[in-house]
Structure formats: structure tokens, C-alpha cells
Amino acid sequence: MSTEVRQLEPQALWNKFADLNAVPRPSKKEARVIAFMKNFGENLGLETLVDEVGNVIIKKPASSGMENRTTIVMQSHLDMVHQKNNDTNFDFDTQGIEMYVDGDWVRAKGTTLGADNGLGVATIMAILESDTIQHPAIEALFTIDEETGMTGAMGLKGGLLSGGILLNLDTEEDDEIGVGCAGGVDVTATRNYNLEETPEFKIGYEITVKGLQGGHSGMQIHEGLGNANKIMNRVLFDGFENFGLRISEINGGSLRNAIPRESHAIVAIDAIHEGAFIMEMALITNTIQKELKTMEPDLVIEVVKCETPEHIMDLGVQEGLTRAIYAAVNGVYRMSADIPGLVETSNNIARIIVKDGDIHIGCLTRSSVESSKNDLANTLRATFELTGCEVEVSGDYPGWTPNMDSAILKVMDKIYENLNGEKAHVAACHAGLECGILGQNYPNMDMISFGPTIKGAHSPDERAQISSVQKYWKFVLEILKEIPVR
């Protein structure tokens, strides 16, 4: 399937993308892709180093006649979000991504594609390898672990880079030039609970929420997509209120930056209420499906009889848990008062695990305003602490404040209009980009973010638009020619 992708234009970029996608590269398990990138740089005879946290830096001198231009840093992250459909048999730790062409799109077979941020990485690789592309001196920065903590960007020390301009290739709309982004923080609630033996008069049911689109918890948080964890809690709450449903296990969501697509629960109900319970579950399923039919037409809520679980949650803890999840903010918390249409602050209830006496609830809170981010984190902390949870606020990373006077922004804005006959959309985004973090150790670096159109990032529906990649590639080549003189 990659053979078909390799024939696409520009071949230099798509071939590097195919090479990269053959290397497993889950976040926090990047040893293979680090070695791959190190070998790539060294085989080109370019100065290549791996810093102490695993970021790879490859330096290439300027093309002839471009020596007086400002040195640029071209930056993308090596890791990718790993999500797959429930019926897809795939091991991200050992297998390369299986790609195919679908009209004007490149997709993966039942998994995330890795276009986020593999197309950025492939772009830089193609430029480093070329002996015909005009460019100033380049410092290629390939960071690790962007998707699960941005520890690569956080660990990059000052003094390793000398570039005055940073081109971050991690934006997902080809008509957009990014000048700012949200910061984020993890809010994690945990507690223990007592296991109770399930009474003999109870029977077991497995409830499954599936068929949701999922997606990027920053870029798509405002779209009204269903969150499997919130939907499951609504079903469980209804079952408890009407029939005394008792929870044995919950396993919902996966990654902190992905809107949850699936959730599974094992519950117990009184056998005498079985018929009424099935009817009530059908009613609430129909209600939720009607509410979400526009955005989530494939939503399925299954209620299937199973073996009666041996243990159920302590009743008091269950009541507190379901109420806390109901009360916890999910989705948009506040829109920006300064930038029309921009989500300022949001939260994603990303992961819920209830099993064997332990509760784990993981959230990712984002905001472009530091005080608002802290306010929402405290709101969540208070919500979960009221039900007896211990709450850890960790992994805090800063946003990127827009600089509308940026010199490289003015250059790129003009180039885009000349190439496309219309103005680019200059905007901040609600995703977390590494620019804000990198700017802490490189405060004088002029930063910008752009990229080709990628849809469905962080979900198995991720796809990259072929015509957009061609448009973006032309844009990149023109930018390299027009980098200002030092």
C-alpha cells in the first residue's frame, strides 16, 4: 500500500513520509525513530546530534548564495498518537503504518495515519536530502514526546540552536498561519474504594459505548463531538437512579489529547428488574442518539448480558463518582474575548478506569490564558475532591503568545497571497504547539507555524489531503527562498 503513496507528488516528501511510517514511533517509546533519524543525518554527512532527552538536531549549511540569510530552525515532532478501531488487529509497538490512497486523501487502514506530525518531519527530511532546493542555513529540530507531555521541547536546553527564525510544521489547515497556541495541564483524580461481594439476586450486564468519531481534544473540542466517558456516565447514572445499578468496572477513553471514542462497563442489576432495565436502556440510548445524530451518526450503545461480576463498588463511592463525572466540565469552558471564534479554555475528560478497588480519572485542560487554565484546573480539582479523590495537577506547559509584528509572518503572509490569490488566515489555535515551550529557552527566536490540511488527527479517521500537501510544499520552497538577510 505504501507503494501507491510513494508515487504521489511531491515524491521527495511522500517517500520520506513512507520511510518514516515504516518505523514504529509511539510517544515515550521513540528509541527506534531516534536511531532512524540519527542515521539519516549521519548518512547525509551532516552534523547530527541527539541531546540528553532524545531530541535529534541535524544541521545543514546554506545553499550557495544564501549564506547571508538568517539561519532557520525547522521543527517537527517524531512521535505520533496511537489510536485504532476496536476491530483492527494492529500492534503499534512493532508494525509500521499501513497507508492507502482514497481519492484526494491518504489514510491508514484502521489506525491513525501519523500525518500529525509525520508530514512535517518528512518535509524537513526531503529538504535536508535535496541538493537542488535553495535554502539558508538550517537547523532541523526533531523533538520527542510531543503528544503525551511535550517533554522533548521541555528538555531542550538553550545554546544548542543559533537560528533566529523557527518554522514549526505542525498546523493542520493549509490556509492558516499559526501565531499562537494554548497551554495545557493534566488534572488526574484517583482514589481507592472497598469492593463488595455481588449479592446472589443480581445479574451482570456489559455496557459499551462505541462508534464515536473521536478526534483532537484541542482543535476539535468545540465541534460538539461525543465524549464516550460522559455518555457512559450518563447511562450508568440513569441505571442507578432508576434500578439501583451497581458498577463493577469501567474502562473508557485512552490518550489525554484524544476525545474518547469508546467506553466499556461491567455492571450488576437486580434480576427482578431485568425487563424494565432493558426497556430503560433502550429509551436512554435512543434519547442520546437523537441528541447527537448530526455529529455522531454512528454512535452505538450496547447493553448485553454477561457473567455476574464477583465484586461491585462501594455504594457511597459509586454515588460520589457518578455525580462528580456528571458535574465535571467537559468541552469548551470559555471562548476568547479577544480573538473571534477561538476557544480560550477547555477540558477533555480523557480516561476513566475503575477496577479492583482503584479509580483513575485523567483530564487535559487547555487555555491560551494562564489564569483561566488555572481556574478550570481548580474547578475540576474541587469537583473531584468533593467525592474523596486525591487530585494531582501536573505536566503544565505554557501557551504561545501571538506576535503580530513578526518579521517572518509578514514574509509568509505576502508569499501566501502571491501563490494563492487570497490572504492566509492568520490565527492562534487551541491545540498545544511546542513553540511556547521552546520560546522559554530561546526567547528571541521569531516563530511561526503552518502545515498541510490534515483531518481527524488523533483518531483512526486521520487523513492527509494530497492536493493540500502539494500546495503546502510549494509554499515551503518559496519561504526558504525569501528568508530575510541577517
Distance between the termini: 45 Å
Structural class: alpha+beta
Task: Report the principal-axis shape.
Answer: elongated
Q: How many distinct helices?
A: 12
What's the layout of helices and strands?
Layout: H1 2-6, H2 11-21, H3 31-43, E1 47-50, E2 56-60, E3 72-77, E4 99-102, E5 105-108, H4 115-129, E6 138-143, H5 151-155, E7 165-168, E8 176-181, E9 183-192, E10 195-197, E11 202-210, E12 215-216, H6 228-243, E13 246-253, E14 258-259, E15 263-270, H7 274-291, E16 300-306, E17 311-313, H8 315-327, E18 331-335, E19 343-355, E20 358-367, H9 370-385, E21 390-397, H10 407-420, E22 425-429, H11 435-441, E23 446-449, E24 454-455, E25 463-465, H12 466-481
Parallel strand pairs: 3-6, 3-7, 7-23, 8-22
Antiparallel strand pairs: 1-2, 2-6, 4-5, 5-25, 9-20, 9-21, 10-17, 11-15, 11-16, 12-14, 13-15, 13-19, 18-19, 19-20, 24-25
Helix pairs in contact: 2-4, 6-7, 6-8, 10-12
Descriptive notes:
- This protein is of the alpha+beta class and 486 residues long.
- The chain has 2 domains: 2-182 and 399-481, Aminopeptidase; 185-397, Alpha-Beta Plaits.
- Helix content is 31%, strand content 29%.
- It is built from 12 helices and 25 strands.
- Strands 9, 11, 13, 15, 16, 18, 19, 20 and 21 form a 9-stranded antiparallel sheet that branches. Strands 1-2-6-3-7-23 form a 6-stranded mixed sheet, covered by helices on one side. Strands 4-5-25-24 form a 4-stranded antiparallel sheet.
- The two termini are 45 Å apart.
- The model has no long low-confidence stretch (mean pLDDT 96).
- It catalyses: Hydrolysis of dipeptides, preferentially hydrophobic dipeptides including prolyl amino acids.
- Its EC number is 3.4.13.18.
